[in-house]
């Protein structure tokens, strides 16, 4: 066996985009292979849970954990990976703050099951029902049970570092891998525990090239209904752009491409509740002084809670809707 | 809710008007319920919506925001910002399932001790009628309960099938 430090990557409630982002670092992936012994990575290689269970505690140097904690299996694996890893990184928006799967926290588990199994879009819904255990000829199959709400990784285990993004940008991943390799070679030191890594320290607005003026918003609209000026701040043009509260690190990709920031890099440094910061930045510049005028402008935001907590509901102060 | 339920309401007051109104109520011996915990700020415009979220997630059953009447802000126009934030915040909270009655904005000048006391009294009764919020206490109580039901349901079915 090689004496290389061990690397693992695991996904819980996630889409798989984080895994692709890691592979998207191109030839840097060879550095991962050159410097690490990849011991567990269900998407990329064959390994069983029992192999991980058999490993010594803290024997894996670096685990990138992506995905939120949606069911009991996710929670069990989070605890297992925590026990076996020296450094556990909450990798991607889901693990950091819940992300899109976390929007399910607006509904309870029963509603989720009902929607999945009994809505009119389900073929022959009357015959379909959820079975958590099924006696197959080869043995009983157990399907994980949903938790009441989706939790973030640090709701269930201690997390060493956070790396937000949906998915984290590949150049940021490459930079973090570079750093870890340098740490292994004794050329650099690790950031302080609990740090957010692979990010900038400002907001997306700071990286955005669009011109900004003093804002007075007369209406809000949806981007598909507008023809925004490509050189001017989108928020000024009434398009709800989440840049003011969102952490920099992506290079303001979306506003540069003509779309509004939706906030996948999560709350900027010092922001305790992402949605609250956005409420503050959007509402403060509404052009209107009477409740009627203000209501009329705000009517343009079709789904405020979804707009403000698209990526961060489980990581917010209220953690859920109900 | 039981008769003994005493709501906890966090009240944010402006140094220049509503805080002095509350003070005046005290000096004039106008009574208002002790359920409200007043926090003084320099201006209602200082009210970051985060404060409201923090109060609700930390166990408050309601939040009262008070400031100077429109046009009378000590800092010219910051109370308009408070109004705008309040409207958007209230919409967001309603969507998340927090009843509109739990968050209230009241204008009260430094001379309106009686008015402020009345408004506090009214709000306490409204929130009392709504019952406790218990947002994050006891590990996400409401949804946990529902999900426990859901789990029981599944387990029940299993038992039935096994029999």
In short:
The complex is a heterodimer of chains A (322) and B (163). By secondary structure, chain A is an alpha/beta fold.
Could you name the key traits of this structure?
heterodimer, A: 322 residues, alpha/beta, Rossmann fold, 3 domains, five-stranded parallel β-sheet, two-stranded antiparallel sheet, 13 helices, globular, B: 163 residues, 2 domains, four-stranded parallel β-sheet
| Major sheet: arrangement of strands of chain A | 2-1-3-5-9
**Helicity level of chain B, as a percent range?**
40-55%
Total strand count of chain B, please? Answer: 4
Number of strands of chain A: 9
**Any low-confidence stretches of chain B, pLDDT <50, length ≥5?**
137-163
Description:
The complex is a heterodimer of chains A (322) and B (163). Chain A is α/β, with parallel strands linked by helices and 322 residues long. Chain A folds into 3 domains: 132 residues, NADH:ubiquinone oxidoreductase-like, 20kDa subunit (Rossmann fold, 3-Layer(aba) Sandwich), CATH 3.40.50.700; 38 residues, no CATH class; 105 residues, no CATH class. Chain A contains 13 helices and 9 strands. In chain A, the strands form 3 sheets. In chain A, strands 2-1-3-5-9 form a 5-stranded parallel beta sheet. Chain A is globular. The mean pLDDT of chain A is 92. With 163 residues, chain B is α/β, with parallel strands linked by helices. Chain B has 2 domains: 124 residues, Lumazine/riboflavin synthase (Rossmann fold, 3-Layer(aba) Sandwich), CATH 3.40.50; 26 residues. Chain B has a 4-stranded parallel beta sheet, with helices on both faces. In chain B, helix 1 crosses helix 4. Chains A and B meet through helix 6, strand 8, helix 11, helix 12 and helix 13 of A and helix 2, helix 3 and helix 5 of B.
